[in-house]
Amino acid sequence: MTTTNSNYKNELWAKSLYYYNLFDDIKEFDRDKAFDYYQASNYYLTLYHEENENSPEIYTQESEFPEEIIRISHIMDLDTNWSKHIVPYSELTKLQPKDRIVTEKDLVERPVKDEIRGMKDDEPVIVANVNGITKAYPIKELLWNPVINDFLGDIPIVITYCPLCNIAFVFNREVQEEILTFGFSGMLYNSCVVFYDFKTESLWDSLTGICLAGDYAGNQLSYIPKNTVSYSSYKRDFPDGTVVANVRGILRPITKNPYIAYDLIKKPLFFYKQIDPRLPAMERVVGIWNDDRSICYSYSDVLRRKVIENEFEGEDFIIFHKFGMISPLSDPIADGRDIGSTSVFSPYVDGIKLNFYVVDNRLFDVETNSEWSSLGVAIDGFYKGTQLRWIRHADTYWFVWAAYFPEVTIRR
To answer: What domain of life does the UniProt record list for this protein's source (predicted)?
Structure first.
């Protein structure tokens, strides 16, 4: 292993490791103090990586990565089959050790009819819906546990959230007729969380669901319908639904936010590619895609228009923005600023295409004046109780979307 390093970077790395070890020693006994150590470790780790942007810290490991390179900030603790991969290892970053595996046995699930302590109505939750079964996962849980394994009815699913990209997806965990269990690998690809399967420790991308390296390289997980909305919207639209109230054995204080003000910065962290100059790097976008073809709308455009009706690859869609959901990346969870939620639906009901308009943050169809929620449920009017079909989309930052889809068309 060879590397070139300055004394300053050595000092930053040593401080980051020092505070991480302090955190690790007391995390089960003093969460508040452990959180302070964790933040200090992240602070020095961020400075360390900022230094690497000008003089990258590259480790060559010829025995494991023939003719390839990988950025490593922690020891490689993954027993991956490195001979199989579909992306260059130079595009992966190892930030921390692989994380604990979170399964359905660790989840405390409650009906939304219960009053759940610590849950605010404007908190963001990831809502998964399949075969008439619905469950919500608070993003504040996924800030600390970015990969959660669960079942939705009899469907094995994995919920992933990456705060650095604001990417949330739900996938089916069944691959080649086998149910896999996943955890956070401690690695990033395009600044997005990379998760690994417990069986082979292959590495999987959290936006596409494609296996990047290992025995399963090239395989892709199938998407499960999901939307990210406020907790109040979920409770109203799915009163018989459930919510994951907390994760057993959590060692970090979920009421605190390790990513305060992240969505206010101008330049992304741990992203080493050239940023597409067509939009600001941290501009929020709504992206829709099919294979390698993609479109996106900037949040500023969506906010201005309130509802967008268009088509992509022959499929009609509507995009609706509704205020009332806080950002998990701006302030402490309870005090996040209201950024609202965006949802993408098919406009068809029983083969009839509806048209839509917005009044006072509320969505109505032109044909019957029925009111529709941010989860595509008609909450009043002729169509009351009807559910619009969710269309797969991503709410993320421009730098991420352009990295995955360099030929993306920005619609206005």
So the answer is: Bacteria
- pLDDT, average across residues 177-204: 95
Write the Ramachandran bin of 126: left for phi over 0, alpha for psi from -120 to 50, otherwise beta: beta
Domain 262-410 has what CATH class? mainly beta
Around 79, how many Cα atoms within 13 Å sit in the side-chain half-sphere? 3
Radius of gyration of the chain from its Cα atoms, rounded to whole angstroms: 21
The token duo for 235 is 């409770």
Spatial distance between the Cα atoms of 299 and 319, rounded to a whole number of angstroms: 11
Average pLDDT of the residues in 207-234? 96
**Spatial contact of 313 and 290, defined as CB atoms under 8 Å apart:** yes
Cα(330)–Cα(122) distance, integer angstroms: 14
136 near 124, Cβ under 8 Å?
no
Partnered with residue 175 across adjacent β-strands are 178
The single residue listed with the structure tokens 């806080």 is 326
What is the arithmetic mean of pLDDT over 130-158?
Answer: 92
Q: How confident is the model at residue 55 (pLDDT cuts 50, 70, 90)?
A: very low
Strand 203-205 to strand 59-60: parallel, antiparallel, or no bridges (unpaired)?
Answer: unpaired
Residue 4 tokens, joined? 């070139």
Residue 202: what residue type?
Answer: S
397 pLDDT band, cuts 50/70/90, is very high
**Assigned token pair, 105:** 């046995």
**Bridge partners, residue 309, by sequence:** 318
Query: Hey, what amino acid is at 96?
Result: Q
Beta-carbon contacts of residue 38 (< 8 Å; ≥ 6 apart): 19, 20, 23, 27, 252, 258
Q: What is the architecture of the domain spanning 104-247?
A: 3-layer Sandwich (2.102)
Instruction: Judge contact between 326 and 340, C-beta under 8 A.
Output: no
Beta-strand relationship, 124-130 and 133-138? antiparallel
CA distance 284 to 267: 13
Query: Is the pLDDT score of 50 beyond 80?
Result: no
- Residue 245 pLDDT level (bands cut at 50, 70, 90): confident
- Domain span(s) for CATH 2.102.10 in the chain: 104-247, 262-410
Tokens, residue 99? 């994380």
Task: Please give the pLDDT value at position 204.
Answer: 98
Give the whole-angstrom CA distance, residue 324 versus residue 53. 37
